[in-house]
Write a structure and sequence with these properties.
five-stranded antiparallel sheet; about 80 residues; 1 helix; alpha+beta
Length: about 80
């Protein structure tokens, strides 16, 4: 598979298994991620617009983001909320 461009409509990607966080809310305010075939990266889309554009990240970029989130690097971006 050729590396897709950022902003590619999701219907132009091969069939993917999209996943969203268990913490996403019932109103659908969440993002979904899917692994691209052959380790070509990770696609991210808005769950409210599943046919809309997908952002494409390398595995290293997603790894850095997830580990940074675990470390609290982005806590200042969210309102103080109790854990569910």
């Amino acid at each position: 598979m050729q590396q897709p461009e950022n902003g590619v409509p999701t219907n132009q990607l091969p069939p993917l298994r999209w996943q969203k966080s268990r913490r996403s809310n019932p109103s659908g305010n969440c993002v979904e991620l899917a692994e691209l075939p052959g380790g070509a990266g990770i696609a991210v889309r808005n769950s409210r617009h599943p046919e809309g554009p997908a952002l494409i990240y390398s595995v290293d970029e997603i790894t850095a983001f997830v580990l940074g989130a675990r470390d609290g690097d982005f806590d200042h971006l969210i309102a103080d909320r109790p854990s569910p």
